[in-house]
Amino acid sequence: MPPTHQAYDCVVLGAGPAGCTAAALIAQAGFSSLLVDRDSLPREHVGESLMPETYWVFEKLGVLEQLNQSRFAKKVGVQFVNNTGKESQPFFFRNHDPHPSSETWHVERAEFDQLLFNNARAKGAECLDQTRALDVLTDGERVTGVRLQSGGQPINVDARVVVDCTGQQSLLANKFGLKQVNPNLRKASIWRHYRGADRDESGGGVKTIISHTRDKQAWFWYIPLSGDIVSVGVVADNDYLLKGRGKPEQVFQEELLKCDGVRQRVEGAEPLDDLRVAKEFSYSTDRPAGDGWVLAGDAWGFIDPVYSSGVYFAMKSADMAADCVIDALRHDDPSAARLGAWNDEFSAGTKWVRKLVHAFYSGEFRVGKFAKEHPEHMGALTNLLIGRMFHPDVPKLFDDLDPWLERMSAQSADDSDEDEPADGLPAIA
């Protein structure tokens, strides 16, 4: 079905969590909004574990009641398993803050994305799937609309603002040459789902489990979903995981045999026939906006799946970008300055998560050991794991963590305490 109008205040490209968030908020503010996606919805997607701080975007969108009544598995914490198979104590988010925002969900993305898509429509956005964005329309350097195709002949649709939420497709970032792959995080992942795998619901819900392989060349996620399904994925350097090692199925099984923390949990479970691969997914963009256009979600950038920040970053960036779009439309000034005004604050927050990701991959970051030496930073670290990246105490964490990691890399860690949890916090091996 083609769009019902030839012009909109805003066209949002991509109906993932970012696009649905932006379209809903802009339409809710009273502006005509068109949301399009090239695929048929619902569709499966990786990124099933949410960060607790996503709660506040859900509240703004008005979907908390639907989520609370959904079948999605309640996520109450995280647990880490080191390369020897030693498990940390479960790390429950509510112990840091008992507010409902400290617990979240593991979601089936097809159902979750459809919920957000339907919500954008309910808020007044026109929402179309199976509609491909072929290109953007321009007047000089200003973007003035999009060229769409939905089954028939391509049509031009004018827009005062175009919001690119096309994910890793990154339509505008690729068109304008803004995308930069992070050379230090050229990772790849292989993942699938299992039925009947181990399911620990002690503590009132499920936990994300992060487990290293014995040789520390890779790590696995283990995400219990609803309906006795578990998402299991392996992440490692792209060259190590995908080059010269045979088919992805074979590589996945080889790495699984080296990961006791996950292998034991899926023993006897049924692997589903849905193996998928993604590679070199860590990237950034040179600028967030231009005249008549703005990026949000994975089209703006993606760091790494290790701390489950992807959906939160997508929705939070879209929330902040939508505020700027609304401001620009109200002032009839869809300039790069107004549309990109959200970026400095957001980038300042995501910088700390990026640094924590690099700490994880350094091989030297052990929370238990760090906590013994710097217990004053555990609140800030917890804030980052929950998603409170804008908290004023977070930058102070790295004043001590950065030199501590350098010291750890320069000396051999004592085997007697390198994996010891402190005060119920996880030890990251």
UniProtKB/TrEMBL annotation:
Region (Disordered): 410-429
InterPro entries: FAD/NAD-bd_sf, Flavin-dep_Halogenase_NPB, Flavin_halogenase
Annotated SUPFAM superfamilies: FAD/NAD(P)-binding domain (SSF51905)
EC category: oxidoreductase
Biological classification of the source: Bacteria, Pseudomonadati, Planctomycetota, Planctomycetia, Pirellulales
The name this protein goes by in its record: Putative FAD-dependent oxidoreductase LodB
Record EC number: 1.-.-.-
GO MF assignments: monooxygenase activity
Gene3D superfamilies according to UniProt: FAD/NAD(P)-binding domain (3.50.50.60)
Gene that encodes the chain: lodB
Pfam families the record matches: Trp_halogenase
Keyword hit for Oxidoreductase: yes
Domain of life: Bacteria
Keywords annotated in UniProt: Oxidoreductase
